[in-house]
Specification:
Layout (H helix, E strand, L loop, with lengths): L1 H9 L2 H16 L16 H25 L2 H6 L5 H9 L3 H10 L10 H22 L4 H21 L3 H29 L2
Length: about 200
């Protein structure tokens, strides 16, 4: 029963594309009730550097995990990554960071002195953690401390730059090592299946 439900809910490639889009639409519906965040496509080198450095700092916390996952022996023992799984992971470096940053950071006010803005920041961090708990079900408290730190840094970047593009860049850069790991597992498994 569970396998049948999983097959039809998760589905093939087309079903995954539709699911990823449908899941992200409700997040964006909040902008029917509030203004869109500031989006300026003219990129400042200073703010871009801030986003890159912040992502590198967050990735440093993940180096042991990423290194362990990329060891050749772990590639052999890891689960089989299918192309549809890879597509889902790819959405985590494309569509998902844009949607999450618009939803979790885009509704924030620029004034830290405003009590309402401070409350929104706290709610943003809590909702971000809840969404990742529901999506992944991880029970390790360290995981949620990292998510909290990630959220606080993304909020800081947004408030400092007053442009949602920079937290999106930070988020994409942070997710890239996980996509690369998944891609390596996929390519490794394909190579040895063909031998």
């Amino acid at each position: 029963m569970v396998k049948v439900a999983h097959k039809y809910i998760r589905g093939g490639m087309i079903a995954r594309v539709i699911r990823i889009i449908i899941i992200n639409l409700p997040f964006l519906s909040i902008f029917m009730f509030t203004n869109l965040p500031s989006i300026e496509l003219k990129v400042s080198l200073d703010f871009l550097t801030l986003s890159i450095i912040a992502a590198i700092i967050m990735i440093i916390f993940e180096i042991p995990k990423i290194y362990y996952s990329n060891k050749k022996i772990m590639l052999k023992l890891s689960y089989d990554v299918k192309l549809k799984n890879l597509f889902s992971r790819f959405s985590e470096v494309t569509l998902v960071p844009i949607t999450e940053e618009l939803f979790y950071r885009g509704v924030l006010s620029f004034s830290l002195l405003n009590v309402k803005a401070q409350l929104l920041m706290i709610v943003s961090v809590i909702l971000f953690n809840i969404a990742h708990f529901v999506g992944r079900g991880v029970k390790n408290p360290i995981y949620y401390l990292k998510l909290t730190l990630f959220s606080i840094i993304a909020i800081f970047i947004y408030l400092k730059t007053k442009n949602i593009i920079y937290p999106v860049i930070f988020h994409i850069l942070y997710n890239i090592p996980y996509f690369i790991t998944e891609m390596r597992i996929y390519l490794y498994k394909r190579r040895f299946q063909n031998e």
